[in-house]
Specification:
CATH topology of the largest domain: Arc Repressor Mutant, subunit A
Oligomer: single chain
Strand order of the largest sheet: 3-4-5
Structural class: alpha+beta
CATH architecture of the largest domain: Orthogonal Bundle
Largest sheet: 3 strands, mixed
Shape: rod-shaped
């Protein structure tokens, strides 16, 4: 089975056109890179690079593998970026409950400021009187929408 490190080695060899330059970029030895590519070729049953006197050139299969490896590695980078965004509060969801007085006076300006600086964080506000009542309203802020106090009447769905 291929792993991400193998794909990274493949991508570096393709980018640099030589095992030596890829080894330097990866802080590996040239023989280790050569063994990694040879193992990948054995595993897939396909020659990925033509060995030349000065470097390597991808075969047709190698070009296809390089293209696929680039897509996979880009997907992994996106995956890591999205997960890190949760750790740094750049993405996710924040839910706030508040009494009507805070919801109408204090929070709208704070929600607006937060939404501007954290556009990928979804803010939601639950307004309550402290007792569960049908009056409780929910509201979500988006950086592009004006932050208006909750409690604005909402259209009710037509009953059948």
């Amino acid at each position: 089975m291929l792993d991400l490190w193998s794909l990274r080695v493949l991508a570096e060899v393709g980018e640099h056109g030589s095992f030596s330059a890829a080894a330097e970029a990866l802080s590996m030895t040239q023989p280790a890179v050569s063994r990694q590519i040879a193992a990948m070729e054995r595993h897939t049953g396909v020659r990925l690079f033509d060995r030349l006197p000065r470097g390597v050139r991808p075969t047709d299969a190698g070009r296809a593998a390089l293209e696929q490896a680039a897509e996979i590695l880009a997907g992994v980078r996106l995956f890591e970026t999205r997960l890190r965004a949760f750790a740094t509060a750049r993405a996710g969801r924040v839910r706030v409950s508040a009494f009507p007085s805070a919801a109408t006076s204090y929070l709208p300006a704070r929600f607006s400021a937060f939404a501007r600086t954290h556009p990928d964080v979804s803010l939601s506000l639950h307004v309550t009187t402290g007792v569960t009542t049908p009056w409780a309203a929910s509201w979500t802020a988006r950086p592009t929408s004006p932050c208006t106090p909750p409690g604005t009447p909402r259209p009710r769905p037509a009953s059948s």
